Amino acid sequence: MKELLANLTGVYGPSGKEDSIRSAIEKEIKDHVDEIRTDTMGNLIAVKKSTLSGDKPPVRVMTAAHMDQIGLIITNIDENGFLRFSNIGGVSPFNVINRRVVFENGITGTVSYETELENMKDLKLNKMYIDIGAANREEAEKQVSIGDVAVYYAPMAAAGNRYFGCAMDDRAGCAVLVQAIKTIKDSPNELIFVFTVQEEVGLRGAKTSAYSVNPAMAISLDVTLTGDTPKSRPMAVRLGAGPAVKIKDSSLICHPRVKNLMIDRAEEAGIPYQLEVLEAGGTDSGSIHLSREGVPSGVISIPCRYIHSAREMVDKNDLENAVKLLNSILENEIVL
Description:
Layout: H1 2-9, H2 19-29, E1 35-38, E2 44-48, E3 60-66, E4 71-77, E5 83-88, H3 93-96, E6 100-103, E7 108-113, E8 128-131, H4 137-141, E9 149-152, E10 157-159, E11 162-165, H5 168-183, E12 190-196, H6 204-213, E13 217-224, E14 244-248, H7 256-269, E15 274-277, H8 285-288, E16 297-303, E17 312-315, H9 316-330
C-alpha cells in the first residue's frame, strides 16, 4: 500500500487534466478486471462481473474515488515574468505560501505574495503569484501559458505508520479502491469501480458516470477531516482509529441501509471503524445519490489531517482497514 500510495500521489492530475493519473491507475488494475473503459468526461470505469449462478440478477454496486487534485490555474503573466493565478478547487492562500508547485510539463516554481500587504488576514489569491525564475514575460511565456495548471510538488514521505504528502485527497481513496480490485476474487454482485474526474470543482464526474452506470447502490471512498490535533474543531474522528462510516456531510445524508450495512460488516469482521459527521464538504456520493430516480449511497472515509495542504497526513492502518471493510461489503451478497 505504501508504494502504491507514493506512486499515485506523485502523479500530476488537477481537475480537468486527469489523463496522467488515469493512465497510472488503469495500468495498476487492467489485469484484475473483466472490462475497463474511459467515458466522455474522462472517468475510468472498471467492471468485475458477478460469479452468482442462476436466474437471479446480481446487485450492481458502484464504488467511486476521485482522481483529481486541487490546483492553481494561470490567469496572467506580468512584464517581470511572475505568474498570477486563480484556484482549481478549494485552495487556501495560507496553505500555498512559499510552497513549491509543478506544472504538467515539469516546470516548477514557488508561490509567494505581495509583501506590501499590511495584514495577513487580508491575504487573497489575487495578491499572490508564482515565481518560476523567469527574468521577464517573454522568458516565462516560453515555459508556461495562460490556463496552465500547477499542483503542489511534495513527494510522499513516511513517519512510522503515518504517510504525508500532497493529493492524499483523494489518491488515498484511489489506492484503497485499487487494492480492493486486486484482492477481491469473487463476488455475487456486479462490481463497478469508477475513478472519477472533477470532484474538486463540483462532483461532476460522479454525476455523469452514475447516470451511465445506473447502480442499485453506491459507496464512495474519500478522505475526511479529523478532530485530534491541538485546539482543533471538535469532531469524533481520529487518525489511526479506523476508517469512518459517514453519516452526513454537506452533500448528502447517507442512506440508512448503506450506513447500517457498512457498520454490520465492520462489526462482523472485527474491523475498527468510526462514525463521521462532516459539517462542511462533500463527496462523490453527493452526486451519485441524486442520479436518475435516486441511488442508496454511503461513504467510507479515510481520516486525514491538513486536507488541501501540501502535507496531508493519513495512517497506514486506516488505509488497510478501509480495504478490508470495502472487501467485506463487496464479497458478500447485498440485499437491498
